[in-house]
Amino acid sequence: MSSTSDANPIADQIFEFIEYTNESVFLTGKAGTGKTTLLKRIKQQSTKKMAVVAPTGVAAMNAKGTTINSFFQLPPGSFFPGDVALQHLQDGFSSIQSTVNDLSFANDKLKLFRELELLVIDEVSMVRCDVMDMIDALLRSVRKNSSPFGGLQLLLIGDLFQLPPVTKREDWSVLSKVYASPYFFDALVLRQNPVVQIELTKVYRQTEETFIKILNDIRNNQIDNETLALLNERFDPDFQDDADINPIIITSHNAEANAINQQKLDALKGESYTFEAEINGEFKDLGLQAEQQLVLKVGAQIMFIKNDTGDERKFYNGKIGRVKSIDNGEIYVAFPDEEDLLLTKSAWQSFEYQIDEDEQVSQNQVGEFLQYPVKLAWAVTIHKSQGLTFDHAIIDAGKSFISGQVYVALSRVRTLSGLILKSKINKDSLRSNNEVINFLQPAMAGDLNLLMKQAQEKYILNLVLAHFNFNSMMGAVDLIQQDPEIYKVNNPFLKTQMQEITSAIKKLDVLLEKFRQQINNLYQQDGFEAQENLQNRITAANGYFANELSVKLLHPLLKLIRVKPTNKLQQHIQHQLQKLRQQIENSITLMHIGSGLLAQPLAAKNYTEWITKHRRRQTKTSEKRSATQETVTLQLF
Description:
The chain is α/β, with parallel strands linked by helices. It is built from 22 helices and 22 strands.
């Protein structure tokens, strides 16, 4: 297994925290600290069933995932928490509860949601608070789990000092009645259930200590007059460059960047060449950097919008060159002091997550977008510069820049000497949002070991308690009750017994929830020092619930199964009842297995080994256990 620890010492700790706990994490860090590299490692090496989503098409493509709206099939617009009648909401809003009730998923999608162990949300700084609450409510519903996000672990990745969530003024006038800010961390679910914050601190994009200090001071609202003066030494309003490659201009608006690029292109003599992208399969998220119609001329300044994946790594995301020639469909790009490069097309893929026959989550390619990995590069917007690195750039931090955007623009550039300012920068344009500064409290590297230990103990308890779950039984009962053929049957005895079975499961499920709460409360009081007490409660629960399931479910069910079928409909009923019987017996077996998982004292040094061994043992098993079990009374109140 490869390791990133040599380059980024904290990376191994973060990977293990994600892999061997169920704690949700916000992973942050300055631009160029390796967040994307760590995400790639998690995708390649994690054994968890995972999916990667992002708020925009561009972010989803960069992370090789899907958009949030596509993955969860969310309608466009904003979401209002609480059970609010739709007629009381303005246009563009949906009630979260109404949306959950109205959404309908195929069985494969439901199974995918229930099997997931890790959901990664990349570029989470752009995700609004109401969207997080929408995801939480949906996952609780489909996973039939009242824990935050239905018990699913979240890895939230992003830099809150970069691109913020976009919220229409009229929408925020409504959302502000509930939320303190549009940022994801002000979602109700995350205010009530804070996530662990971990920060990557080593910067790889910039190496100049002076420039790194300037960027840090801007992030922390600590820039003083001396440092600001040093930055403004790069002010050169009359800058003219007669070199082959001009510094790229970073602007705030698409229209301005497009106008500059078009004017420069039009000024070039010679023929225009148009290169059409090729789209294969389903490609819904066309929020790409790549152009569907790429128009070039000889002499055009272009930048690469993708990293070279070949062995020689001849270009990177943001590298700028000039079109040297276009002949018979061959495009050559020239760089200062480097060999010319023959341009070849690159592929961008669109994906869907599916659950396979082995209940593994697979990411399947469903579409492909083929185009040359370049675009015109005399100018670019801040949003489109996301993920790019420039050796030289011109920044005009005028009135069009909103608070915080100057930092994003500055952090695209490798060195202070590679920076040209078209207008001077003042402190007002550098001010970061107080909400962000107040929220950020990342754990220190030295605290991660203690946090890991506590998170692993909670995870171990979750894995044990996962064996005490009646969802599959309730699902089997629902299938019988919703079966149109069985529904038509005029059999009072069948209906009475099924009503009694349904009622018994619901009552036992209420007691089961109280049992889980008991275990969690006991852990909160005494931690794993109370392992013996925890185990005694779990053993007692196993005996109690197994006996109740046998007496109140299996026995009545067996009376129905013993009735000999005389026609196809009765055979169908018998088949469904046998499925329910199997689910009940599986539940008894799983509880029996779960009750023995902590029978031997577990030391902290063995947590990771225990988790690795037992994490996969939550699925149903066909192993049978005798229905005659010792009855143990469990105190639940």
